[in-house]
Design a protein that fits this description.
The chain has about 150 residues and is of the alpha/beta class. Helix content is about 35%, strand content about 30%. Helix 2 links the parallel strand 1 and strand 2.
């Protein structure tokens, strides 16, 4: 995702994070040719960035792997500037997603669209929108950090 965004918007500075060392190493290698991308190891529940540091935060199919996802939403709100956008998509709590994650034994806590909507509002986001897609298996979301 970062490579595509960096290519489409070369004037935008991107910071890519992951908690896993192997993923960080892989992303650094893959994105090394992109001068507008920085890759850092970070825990999404305790981001190493100052308050109001970013204009936008994105999340792609990762929230369900963060069992403390409410804390992750709070961190996204904290590092966003007032009016900043939080955008992404994730798996929806479906039978297929539950079975897949039981079989692969990865840590997870699948979310419902309503649960994510409530969590975003509780984290201080406005203009919250959560839309099911892919026959209900995914949900796309967008919200803005409160200005006031």
């Amino acid at each position: 995702m970062a490579d595509g965004i960096a290519q489409l918007f070369p004037d935008v500075r991107l910071t890519v994070t992951d908690i896993d060392d192997a993923m960080v190493t892989s992303a650094r290698h893959r994105l090394a040719h992109r001068g507008n991308v920085t890759v850092r190891q970070a825990d999404v529940t305790a981001l190493p960035f100052g308050d109001a540091s970013f204009d936008a935060v994105t999340s792609y199919l990762m929230l369900h792997h963060v069992t403390a996802w409410r804390e992750a939403l709070g961190e996204a709100a904290r590092v966003l500037r007032p009016g900043g956008a939080f955008l992404g998509y994730d798996l929806t709590d479906t039978r297929a997603a539950r079975l897949t994650h039981r079989l692969d034994r990865s840590p997870h806590l699948l979310l419902s669209a309503d649960g994510l909507r409530i969590g975003l509002a509780e984290a201080g986001f406005d203009d919250v929108e959560v839309r099911p897609s892919a026959s209900g298996h995914l949900m796309r979301f967008g919200a803005k950090r409160s200005v006031g």
